[in-house]
Amino acid sequence: MKKRKNFISVLVIAGMMLTALSAVAGEIRIGITMRMVSENGQKYGQMMMDEIDMINKAGGINGNQIKATLMNDECKSDKGVANANKMIFQNKVHLVVGSSCSSVTLPIVDVTAKAEVPQIVPHSTNSKITQKGSEWVFRVPVSGRFYGGVNAKYTGENIGTRIAYICAADAASQGDCEKMQGQMKAQFGADPVYVAQVQEKEVDFRTHMQKIKSANVNGVMIAALAETMARALVQSYEAGIGPEVRRIGSSSASNSPVPAIAGDAAKGVFFAAAYSHSDKRPIARMFNEMTRTRYGIHAPDHDFSQAYDLIRIVEIALRNADLELTNSSLKQDRIAIRDAIAGVRNYQGLASGPISFCSDPSPVCRDGNRTAVLIAYTKGGEEYELEVLARVTMPMDFGL
Amino acid sequence: MIGFFTGVEAFFTGLSRIHRLLPWILAYILLLPLPFLLKFGISEYYVDLANRACLFILLSVGLNIVKGFCGQVTVGHIGLYAIGAVTSALLAINYQLPFWVSAPIAILITGLAGIIVGLPSVRLEGAYLALATLGLGESVRIMIAVTPAFGSSTGIMMIPEPKIGEFIFNSFESYYYLVMTCAIIGIYLSFAILRSSTGRAFQAIREDAIAASVAGINVPFYKLLAFVISALYAGLAGALFAHMPPGYLHHNNFTIIEMVTLLLMVVLGGIGNIWGGVIGAILVTVIYDQTKDYYFYQPLIFGIIMVVMVVFMPHGIGGVVKQAMIKRKFIENQEESRGSA
Prior knowledge:
The complex is a heterodimer of chains A (400) and B (341). Chain A is α/β, with parallel strands linked by helices and 400 residues long. Chain A has helices spanning 2-20, 39-57, 77-90, 102-115, 128-131, 144-158, 171-188, 206-214, 226-238, 257-262, 282-295, 302-320, 330-342, 363-366, and strands at residues 27-34, 65-72, 95-98, 119-121, 137-142, 163-168, 194-198, 219-223, 246-249, 270-273, 367-369, 371-379, 385-393. The longest helix of chain A has 19 residues, at 2-20. Chain A has a 7-stranded mixed beta sheet with strand order 7-6-8-9-10-12-13, sandwiched between helices. Chain A has a 6-stranded parallel beta sheet with strand order 2-1-3-4-5-11, with helices on both faces. Chain A folds into 2 domains: 27-143 and 284-292 and 300-370, Response regulator (Rossmann fold); 145-277 and 373-393, Response regulator (Rossmann fold), CATH 3.40.50. In chain B, helix 2 (22-31) runs antiparallel to helix 9, helix 3 (34-41) crosses helix 4 and helix 4 packs across helix 14 (274-290). Chain B starts with a helix and ends with a helix. In chain B, strands 1-2 form a two-stranded antiparallel sheet. Chain B has a domain at 46-255. With 341 residues, chain B is an all-alpha fold. Helices cover 76% and strands 1% of the residues of chain B. The interface between A and B is large, with 43 and 37 residues.
């Protein structure tokens, strides 16, 4: 019995050591940390893993296989940092992908900068991520600084300047809210008519909606995560705010739970996003069909498209990078991958405009996607429909 | 295994007879080379894991004082942890105070907050007290989430690492010596409290508050004291967490899920058992880390562990080990008495 227990202890320690030493030469290691707590979150992660698997099945990158590790950070910074540390120091990854949430990506930027590991961001929009000046970080999604400008321009020119704001406490929504207010002031000299700060998972907006109704506004911006936004939209109609008052969504309005939960209340809501499933380009049609077949998605949102674009950009960069992939070349390989990502120019994928990076560690170079598409829901529910109102490519230094 | 524990206990008891601090100094010395063993034996990452385990040890040992020693059901400990973290971070950023000043102030402020969290315990018990403390703990998190000065949604960034002169605690190894030292001191003080008259008063209240009151113990005072001492531990853990690289805090670090995880550490190790709290903190940290790849099943794994522990091992791992050691001693004594007869 004693021998058996000792044997088990030895096995456990050996297992831990094997895991630690499992970094194999000749493979490209990618660590992905994402918010895997929602149904869609899991599918974004799964799609990235599937795409990497397909690259491997097609022969890999210049003959080298990619070994990807997917971890859940639950949208919590301490868990995201722990994941990044594990990927970097134990799994010895060449590239970190993450995270979905700005509040997790922000501290990971410091971790990757210190460890000198390239990081590419799939979903986080908070403008501060690239403003930290790390030479190791690249962002695929449209930065919040661009969204604010697009939303404000359309709103001021087509709807009016009397706008009320409901801003949820998550980092992305706060960023979207602040940028929109700042741009309304900068472009039209308009101050907010009403501002409400609410919880990330707030359920009751009725008091705010009554106040907004009596304030005689032209529009209401609801900046919140998908489920919260859907509840706010429904309650805005329950409070008697008619469809003549336009609802403006933050970038997460693109997520499918918004029309699914809000139903008819989603109709007319417009928002700036990186992708619309009503895009008629062949690549977009193929992508829509792929997500429908593989993951049962009626219409993929921009977080799906951004995850897909990210993998394609990583694929291009890895093919262009001069990699040795030995245990002793890890540092050089990481530098080569960073430089290869910085060398990606005019990538034309699912995003509404080209994505380009460059080597300067400033937002101008590292916020690769500057094209936002302005979209409105024409039908809510599970089988929702969208229409594209406008496509706007912003100047590189906009909002800085 | 029990023989090993009994041997270790006998060895350390022997040392403590020479000087009460001797076993602790020896334990400290034994733990000094750990980062290098981990770094060169397994991976540098495990030093980071050890740092996090030390933080959780401080939290669970602190929680054990109010919950295990004094028998007060609190679910607001994570709120106190948040207060310690945010206070130290803000003092360091806004007033450029060094960690060695900001952390003690944060600990004191968290101690004061402990009085507020503990006040309901004077009138409430059991589930009602749990609900009241839960509300207070969650209120702290919400307040942080909606107050821009406390970091709000983007969190508090660029919290400076502790430093002494030119030496900065900015690596896993250097930070280990800081958190490990605090954890050892925290465990030692916990034992000291347990063996003092204060500790006996706590235990008397846990067993029967009315009987304790009749025996002359100022029950409300000692209940509050338990909350304050527990809060001091949480404040220290919070300050250490805030200044740990990369120096970032967000209100999502202090949710009810974190509180449940903390409770799991105490329940797994054994409520009222100091070493149990330590074992629980280490086990939960390691299990969580080793099951990262199975994120789908993680909540299920922890849920099952908690249910199994409550049903089959209500005194936790620490309780089981303690029982086995008592049993072994009893058998040895019996054999000795038979031999001498």
